[in-house]
Each structure stands twice: as C-alpha cells, then as structure tokens.
C-alpha cells in the first residue's frame, strides 16, 4: 500500500466538532459513549505522522483534524497540568481518577506537535499544553506513562527545547531501569510481574531515552526486553501473536485471545526504534510482520482492518475479528502504517546514501 491509497475516511467519520468519538458499532459512531482524551492524543499523533506522506490536498484535511484534537486537549487539561480523560457526548466530565497513561500520551502528542507543526499559532497551542503537562512529570508513578514522557522529553532535548530537561529524563530512565532490575529473571526479562497491555511502549521509551542520553545501559535493557517481548509475540508460523487481554501473560500463563490492535502497533513502534538505534534487520522484519497482522497474517488468518475505509477492527478472538471499528483500533492501524512507511523511507535513504558513498 502506498501513501496515496491510505484512507482517512473513518477517522473523519468518527470525528465531530468536539473530537474523535471513542467507540463505534461496526463503523457507525456510538455517540452515547462519548470521548476519551487518550484518543484525541492518539489521533493528533496519527495526523502528525501522516503529514509527512500525504498529498498537499489531503494535508489541509489533516490540519483541520489537528485543530480539533489540539482544542480538545486544551479544553480537558486541568490547571495543574493533568488531563480529564473521560468526557460524555454532551461534553460533561465523567467521574474518574487522573491517569498517568493519559498524561503521558498527551505529553508525547503535544511535544511532537510542537516540533512538527510549522505555523506559529498551532505551535503556540501545543506549547501551552506541553508546558503545563510537564509540571506533572515528577508525579508519574506508572511505567507506561513514564515511557511516553521519556519519549517526549527525549524528542525535545534532541530539538534543543529551551528548557533544561536532562535531569528530568535521567530520573524517568532510572525509574524504568529500577523496575527492570526488580522484576527481571533469566526466563522473564520484563519490568513487571505480568505482560499486560501496550507492552512495547516501555522499551520504546528506553530507546528514545538512549537516543538523547547515549547511556549504554538504557540500550542494553531496551534490546533485552524487546527481544523477550518479540519471542512471546510470534506464533508457530512466525506471525505476530500479541498477548491476549483475556488474562494477559505471566511466567505460568499466556492468554491467546482477545488480541488488541494497540499492542501490535506498540510492538511495531518499539521494533522500528530498535532498528533505528541498532541497524539490525530483524527489527525491521518485525515491523513488517506487525503491519501484516492487520492484513491477515495472524492467528485467525483474517484481515484486522478495512483498508478502503482506513479503519481497524477492535480485537481478534477465537471466532474472528470484533467488527466494531472504534478510535483506538483505527488509530492503531493508521499509526502502524505510518511506522512501516517511515521505516522503509529511512531504509531507502540509508541505502541511497551508502550507494553514493561507494
């Protein structure tokens, strides 16, 4: 699939003047279930990645979506920098406890927006979100939120953001390394007693931190843990088999179903960064396998996306795909496509450079 054939039809279908609706019945938005700030951050991220590849006429549409998602983040961010995640369709806030994961996703999306958006007005909004959110980084407790924050801060450091962030990044990296030292064993090379959701985001965060800090311990742990995750994420045919959410995975048990698209996307993200940092071809192959999962290279041998609509199915069970096409699964599909496209564009650039040097 080439960039011109990737569809954003479903993304536009799910998005109204408030934001992207969280759930769908089939591909019809379920407005009664409202919105999540998580999904706005993911949607902003997806649009920013695809701006590099779409024709100019489609870029205008993506910029319109970017404005909607930035506006949502500005609206749901509290004065202390945290975000309210769950919003009803009538725009009222639902009761909840603040989420580290939500904060981390918003940090990453706003940092990427600040770096990538060329016009001052959009960058101003992204920076406002980013600066307030950074006030909460020291309070992050959970690994996935911390991994997102590491990726965001590493990106800012590498682009000379006008704020001293080295100590903040070092503290986050130390937290993840401590978790790894606490839980890793010879047959269990992981940061927690169980593999649950979005697992690839943790080694991805460490790869990003290594890129900024050049601390070899970060690279070693990222590689070791990602290799462990990859071994657990391949079936007998060599296809991707993410840990199912019907019980997750411990040293004693591994759930086969229900496999979630977001876990495939996070594995692709981590493998792509591993390839970028190490140059090892096996990681690029994993990215291709993750993309293949959406097109039928999976345990059920069925597509997990509707490419014509640009949508992803919500999960894979023993009876086949869940045909609902909500925001998370759709954005996981679109982001996996973008990761795959970016990796192959970078590979071609490296090959062309090597040929020129020869």
Task: Write up what this structure looks like.
This is Glycosyl transferase. The strands form 4 sheets. Strands 1-2 form a two-stranded antiparallel ribbon. It has a two-stranded antiparallel sheet with strand order 3-4. Helix 2 runs antiparallel to helix 3 (56-76), helix 2 (37-50) packs parallel to helix 12 (327-357) and helix 3 runs parallel beside helix 5. By secondary structure, the protein is mainly α. The longest helix is centred in the last third of the chain and has 31 residues, at 327-357. The protein has 12 helices and 8 strands. Strand 1 (24-25) and strand 2 form a beta hairpin. The two termini are 31 Å apart.
Features of this protein?
358 residues; mainly alpha; Glycosyltransferase; two-stranded antiparallel ribbon; 12 helices; 8 strands; 56% helix; globular; disordered C terminus
Task: Explain briefly what this protein structure is.
The chain has 358 residues and is mainly α. It is built from 12 helices and 8 strands.
Spell out the blueprint of helices and strands.
Blueprint: H1 9-14, E1 24-25, E2 28-29, E3 35-36, H2 37-50, H3 56-76, E4 86-87, H4 100-116, H5 120-134, H6 143-158, H7 166-183, H8 201-213, H9 216-232, H10 261-278, H11 281-294, E5 305-306, E6 311-312, E7 315-317, E8 320-322, H12 327-357
Antiparallel strand pairs: 1-2, 3-4, 5-6, 7-8
Helix pairs in contact: 2-3, 2-4, 2-12, 3-5, 4-5, 4-6, 6-7, 6-8, 7-8, 8-9, 8-10, 9-10, 10-11, 10-12, 11-12
InterPro entries: 6-hairpin_glycosidase_sf
Keywords: Transferase
Organism: Paenibacillus naphthalenovorans
